[in-house]
């Protein structure tokens, strides 16, 4: 049901699948679930690095949680602190397990609208590698990103993991999305139009930074 719902949100067709029979690898009550998506785009509609210019605005779209990244570290922290998945945590009515299993937000409908109006100069999905590694992947040579950390409120679940796991700020930003699931780069002249679209859809956005000149390979600077 979850896969079907995800396909419906994204406007994708679920074209097929198979079940691997691996009795020597998995116990009878366990299974492995994986999937992938393939898309097509007209060449003139590709979002390429040459669109990005100095002073472009970086907008953060809120995440719904960990988005399936950093779970090796999360598991290690939970085990070392002897925390059970069915325990309630102080800042939410959810158990820890329920909080960790919140589905990953799908941004496809939002991005399709923005792309329809040719408002996107760059798009960075904040997955494994966090803000530190994912934003530079979409930047051209000679450009970097300046991110203002206080421009959005980091969700409590990330602060909780950071505290009980004694994780440094740098490691948090390199491992988790820290509340920003997608970063989009737009021209400053397009901000009002973008904000209008998100307001109509009742979706939050944060201005989290801007593009700056930087002669070395692209990176992220935090303030």
Question: Helix content range of the residues, please?
Answer: 25-40%
Secondary-structure arrangement, i.e. CATH architecture: Alpha-Beta Complex
Which structural class should the secondary elements be placed in?
A: alpha+beta
CATH class: Alpha Beta
The total beta strand count reads 6
Textual characterization of the structure:
By secondary structure, this protein is of the alpha+beta class. The chain has one domain: PurM-like C-terminal domain (Phosphoribosyl-aminoimidazole Synthetase, Chain A, domain 2). It has 8 helices and 6 strands, in the order αβαααβαβααβαββ. The chain has a 6-stranded mixed sheet.
Explain briefly what this protein structure is:
This protein is an alpha+beta fold and 223 residues long.
Descriptive key words:
alpha+beta; Phosphoribosyl-aminoimidazole Synthetase, Chain A, domain 2; 223 residues
Set down the secondary structure blueprint.
Layout: H1 2-10, E1 57-62, H2 71-80, H3 96-100, H4 108-116, E2 122-125, H5 130-134, E3 143-147, H6 156-165, H7 169-175, E4 180-186, H8 191-200, E5 206-213, E6 220-222
Parallel strand pairs: 3-6
Antiparallel strand pairs: 1-4, 1-5, 2-4, 3-5
């Amino acid at each position: 049901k979850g896969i079907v719902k995800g396909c419906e949100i994204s406007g994708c067709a679920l074209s097929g699948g198979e079940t691997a029979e691996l009795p020597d690898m998995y116990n009878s009550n366990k299974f492995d679930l994986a999937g992938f998506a393939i898309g097509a785009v007209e060449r003139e509609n590709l979002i390429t690095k040459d669109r990005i210019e100095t002073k472009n605005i970086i907008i953060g779209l809120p995440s719904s949680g960990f988005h399936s990244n950093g779970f090796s570290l999360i598991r290690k922290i939970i085990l070392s602190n002897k925390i059970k998945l069915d325990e309630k945590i102080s800042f939410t009515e959810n158990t820890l397990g329920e909080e960790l299993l919140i589905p990953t937000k799908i941004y496809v409908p939002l991005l399709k609208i923005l792309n329809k109006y040719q408002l996107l100069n760059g798009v960075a999905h904040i997955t494994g590698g966090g803000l530190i590694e994912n934003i530079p992947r979409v930047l051209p040579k000679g450009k970097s990103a300046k991110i203002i950390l206080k421009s959005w409120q980091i969700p409590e679940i990330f602060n909780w993991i950071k505290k009980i796991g004694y994780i440094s700020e740098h490691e948090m930003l390199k491992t988790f999305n820290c509340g920003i699931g997608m970063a989009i780069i737009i021209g400053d002249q397009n901000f009002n139009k973008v904000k209008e679209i998100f307001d109509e859809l009742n979706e939050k956005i944060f201005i989290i930074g801007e593009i700056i000149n930087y002669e070395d390979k692209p990176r992220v600077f935090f303030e």
